[in-house]
Amino acid sequence: MCQYIINSINEASKVIGKTWPLYTFVASNPLSGYENAPFEEAVSLAKNNFNANAFPSVKLFQQAFERGDIDKNILVDFLTKQGFLEKPEYYFNLIASKTEKETLNKNHAVDVIMAKWLASFMDEGLAEWDMPFKSEGFYAAWRLLVIYDSDTGKTSLKEIPKKSIDTLKLVLEGYSENEYQSIFTHHLASLPGWVGYINHRTHSNTDWQQEFPIDLVDYLAVRLWTTQKLNLSILPKNTENIIDPSIPQLQYILLKAWEKSWQNQLVKTLKKESISTSISTEKSEIPDAQMVFCIDTRSELIRRNIESKGNYETFGYAGFFGIAMDYESLNDGITRKSCPPILNSAYKVSEIPQENKKNQFEAFKNKNEVSKFRNYFLKRIKNMIPSAFGFVEGAGFFYGISLIARTLIPKKLYQLEDKKASKTENICHPDIHKTNTENHDSYGIPLEEKVAIVKSAFDLMGWKQFAPLVVFTGHGSHSANNPFSSSLDCGACAASPGRHNARMLAKLANLSEVKKELAEKHQIMIPENTVFIGAEHNTTTDEIVLFDAEIPNSHKELVQNLKTNLKKAQKTATQERLGNKRNSINSAEEKANNWGETRPEWGLAKNAGFIVGPRSLTKNSNLESRCFLHSYEWELDTEGKALEGIIQGPMTVTQWINNHYYFSTVDNSIYGGGSKITHNITGQFGVVQGNGGDLKMGLPLQSLFASDENMYHQPLRLTVMIQAPINRVSDIISRNPGTKTLLDNEWIYLLVMDPTNKNEIFKYEKSIQWKATSEINSNKKEKEAVL
CA-CA to 620 of 20 to 30 Å: which in 1, 64, 549, 614? Predict the structure, then answer.
């Protein structure tokens, strides 16, 4: 029986994804456990489990329709094919009249109690006083303390079994084994945010999890015992509203018409670019500098503006720059993951002093130690009962001055603090070694691995020639008083800034032995005068900082020219992004440093497409920061290995990001983060709305909506466009069943521009079938292609 219970819990847990902590807030699909089902079916199942919206609200559909984002001809065509013959406005009104969301929560009393226990047990250092018995594990600690909890009524310790599995057996007496999974699914889905964080802790096996263990068996034992104690129903009753089946069908038609309208515009733009490229001759002139940016949608804007300022070439590459690493910060000594969550970190990167800067390095470390002690000391004084009142009285004046300054002159205050801060990159360079080793010798990994990292980057991007200056540009964000700040950093770096990965790749690429090996064994010829450096793009202000402390004298003028042009690019980029022709940089910096700013930047809002191809496909188009851009040259990738790597890696990550934004928009209260205005941080790892409730697992309202009613992000599924021979793409899909499942189940749309067939564009159908679209206007029929 015990094993059957555990098996049922494991099966039921598939309906819950992972909730990531604020300090590594990675975008992920909250319905990842449903991806084996078709999208339409999956969201319907999730709607029943979570009482959550499956599709955008009718208000969002109407906004898109009125703005022309949903092409009326496409919508009418879709409706007619399904037998809906009235005008679109009729169906908007019909949906609005029949889609009231059920708001009654019959589990409220249990949810409140469970949230209270979970917040106390899972605290990660925010609380001054720890919950007793935490090291015994969640169930054991709860059992010893619940007898003092008035919320659950009078309880004797003898009533509660010592083991969680025995409690489950006791509570489940009288229920058939066929009912177990339904019971577990219902109770896990009642608090998906908290359960998702338990999933994160157990799967990641964090230090907190090792010291204070909790799992779903413990959680369900406590929850079901509490439910029974309160005389509430263990087995969920079938109270599902009877909904006209045509309503979700109509909602899905509206969504598909919206997506098709956007796809048509994308196809039209790229087809036009491909024609203009084919009749123009490609420049062979070597650029003054080449800059590699993350594929992040925010890079599209800055890339266009940089290219317009001089003889510069830009590329798109996943922002962890191909290094599966953890990074140990010199500032706080904490090691954080700095690569996609789906990858195991093979390397650890730390900081070592640059040549002739050991004294500065030691001084920096000593200063940090003093600063950390001061912060710890002040925190203790503020929180200890004997000293708290005296501290507030004595320090109140100075805190008041600080609050006034942060409110009235946030930018000036930030600049003062920034000047005082020591810059690690000026005195250090990164050192790489194997994970879980104590070897801190410089570049402590084999030569072949260094070469493989560098070669992989050039292979995936389809590199043809080298400029004298190559800049790997990671990205990070800056905002004040923002619990979700890590969500604005690099998703490919597990919500960390990408600067350290960029610096590490530059350091490896500069090694003479790496260059020699690339030339002799892989025919990648890097000129002697080519120098690689790292940089960081601040996506809130569009400032780009070059880490050029070790640049040779021969390249200083080139670097200075680039800095001048990057400043010009920042100005035009912020003007475009903020719609502000005057003082646009100042406006961006104010938003970044204003502690009352709820929308410091939009992040990846409006993301809808992922384009894999050469820069020539998009260089002359304004894609409005809606597309991820990955460089790829099909002619150089004769075996398709580079494309397969892009499809298996970056495409998967962009789908997570897209779904994260989609579901956070369609139901912000369940899948999203709710309003920032009433957020409270709990346990240093998450936020709750108000004084309790479920842990928020998605993006806040202000990251998605221009106001409470008007959307900014458009919730569309990801459309991927790849320029490559269609047979190559088919082969890759056929040998990767996970990718095929995502495509067949319509979690992703795939379009292929075949350069061997006059750049004809084909749309993926189920089971690796394709439709050729020769006519891109929405009112023309697609013709069938036999491949």
Answer: 64
Sign of torsion over alpha carbons 560, 564, 569, 574:
positive
Q: Would you put residue 350 in left (φ > 0), alpha (ψ -120 to 50) or beta?
A: beta
Predicted local distance difference test score (pLDDT) of residue 442: 45
Can you tell me whether residue 121 is helix, strand or coil? Answer: helix
Chunk the chain into consecutive blocks of 10 residues (it has 787) and report each block's average pLDDT, rounded to whole numbers: 91 91 90 94 93 94 97 97 96 89 72 96 89 96 96 92 96 94 95 96 91 97 96 80 82 98 95 71 79 98 97 97 94 89 91 92 81 63 61 65 77 68 84 74 79 97 96 95 91 94 98 97 96 97 96 97 98 95 92 90 97 96 97 96 96 95 96 93 93 93 93 98 98 97 97 96 95 60 42
For residue 459, give the nearest of 451, 447, 467 by alpha carbon. Answer: 451
Torsion sign, CA atoms 352, 356, 359, 360? negative
Provide the CA 352 distance to its chain's centre, in angstroms.
30
- Element containing residue 94 per DSSP (H, E): helix 88-98
Q: Tell me the helices (H) and strands (E) count for the chain, helix number first.
A: 27, 18
| Dihedral Cα 722, 728, 733, 736, nearest 10 deg | -120
Can you tell me the distance from the alpha carbon of 335 to that of 10, in angstroms, rounded to the nearest whole number? 31
E strand or H helix that includes residue 528: none
Question: What integer pLDDT is reported at residue 785 of this predicted model?
Answer: 42
Alpha helices in 409-548 (DSSP H): 410-420, 424-427, 447-461, 499-510, 512-522
pLDDT for res 146: 96
Q: Looking at residue 395, what is its pLDDT?
A: 65
**Which ranges of 637-724 does DSSP label H, i.e. alpha helix?**
641-648, 650-666
Give the dihedral sign, CA 676/682/684/686.
negative
Q: What is the pTM of this model?
A: 0.93
Residue 88 · residue 75 · CB < 8 Å: yes
β 428-434/347-353 pair status: antiparallel
Question: DSSP class of residue 521?
Answer: H
Q: 490 has which bridge partners?
A: 496
Residues 6+ apart with CB under 8 A from 640: 724, 728, 731, 732
Residue 51: left (phi > 0), alpha (psi -120 to 50), or beta? left
Please say whether the beta carbons of 114 and 198 come within 8 A.
no
- The kind and range of the H/E element at 529 are none
Instruction: Give bridge partners of residue 545 from the DSSP assignment.
Output: 536
Helix (H) or strand (E) holding 227: helix 216-229
Q: What are the contacts of 690-694 at 24+ separation with CB within 8 A?
A: 692/112, 692/115, 692/116, 692/119, 693/111, 693/112, 693/115, 694/111, 694/115, 694/191, 694/192, 694/193, 694/194
Cα-atom radius of gyration of the chain, to the nearest Å? 28
Alpha carbons 699 and 722: distance in angstroms, whole number: 29
Q: What is the pLDDT of residue 74?
A: 97
String of DSSP letters for 708-765 = SSSBSS----EEEEEES-HHHHHHHHHT-HHHHHHHHTTSEEEEEEEGGGTTEEEEEE
Count the Cβ atoms, other than its own, within 10 Å of residue 163: 15
Write the secondary structure of 552-618 as one string of H (helix), E (strand) and C (coil). CHHHHHHHHHHHHHHHHHHHHHHHHHHCCCCCHHHHHHHHHHCCCCCCCCCCCCCCCEEEEECHHHC
CA distance 289 to 564: 13
Q: Which residues pair with 472 in a beta bridge?
A: 292, 534
